[in-house]
Amino acid sequence: MRIILFGPPGAGKGTQAKLMENKLNIPHLSTGDIFRNAIKNKTPLGVEVSKILESGKLVPDVTVVNLVGETIKQPIYQNGYILDGFPRTVPQAEAFDKVLKENGQQLDAFISMEVPEDELIKRISSRGEGRSDDTPEKIKVRLDVYNKETAPVMNYYKEKGLYQSVNGVGTVEEIFEKILATLKKQQGAG
Ligand code: ADP
Questions:
Q1: What band does 188 get if pLDDT is binned at 50, 70 and 90?
Q2: Which atom of ligand 1 is nearest to the CA of 145?
Q3: Of the residues 2, 36, 138, 142, which is catalytic?
């Protein structure tokens, strides 16, 4: 299955994607994780994006689209993937459609995790992962970017009839069960 796990920063996409990876045996593909690893390892990509991640703004669409396009060609992603953090703009969603088409692939599900903004701020401020973009000032930038550039991606998938939403407030297990139930329903429909 090819699944997009969508939601604002702090929604818990990474946590849920890891659980899904184990349960469904589909690899988790997080663009944020790829960037943070590249930065840690000082690769050319890392050098290119380090200042951008630090600022809380978005990496240019062409960089992200090329990265995802190359990554999903790898053998481990042939039978599917759980995308986390991509697509994050409407142009990325459009470009991703082209990539899927070129590879003769289809998207199976788009799951949006809904969490109110005050809860997001609380979660990110207290998660203590030491991320340089988890400061109050950068959190504000990321939420603004989300509202302006990323939220419209939901409409894109609503129009395609793929959009499903899950309440992202509750225990990790409760939310995970809801995601699994949503995927089952979607599979039944498709
Ligand atoms: P979060 O969801 O908590 O903001 P991510 O790990 O998904 O964290 O992303 C961290 C940062 O990586 C973003 O703020 C952005 O700078 C960059 N990034 C990740 N994915 C994308 C993307 N699809 N397009 C542009 N920038 C991205």
A1: confident
A2: 14
A3: 142
